[in-house]
Write a structure and sequence with these properties.
The protein is mostly beta strands. The chain has one helix and eight strands; from the N terminus they run βββββββαβ. The N and C termini lie far apart (31 Å).
Amino acid sequence: MIVHVGSLNPGDPVPAIYTCAGASETPPVSWENIPPGTKGLVLILDDPDAPRGTFTHWILYNIPPAPGELAAGQPDMKVLPDGAQQGVSSSGLRGYYPPCPSDGKQHRYIFHLYAADTDIAMPTADRASIDAALAGHTVAETDFVTTFKR
């Protein structure tokens, strides 16, 4: 399984348009090589370098299990047009919370993609409930690491 973030290479800085220094819009994300038996995909964006511990910036779950993509600028809707659902970030808000490190240090932003062998039946999910739902139901996973410093 492979996940791509726009035209970035792993380790590249996140373009300002996708951060608090720009328009704060969601980046384009695509995926391929989905394994057999996958019922849905889960995409999580984390900042493991946040001062108070890992900060989850974006949770999408029940993404259709086929090669595909999310265009840039996704709305903060509960359910996207393709049926994927957006969970609640560490900010307490649904949808994408842009990278915005306040400590002046470079942070890593990790896009985790999981292939799940089950649908996640939750009206709204946060990181803890998604982690619990994925336990024992992850067929495959992959990461894509970007960076950002303000």
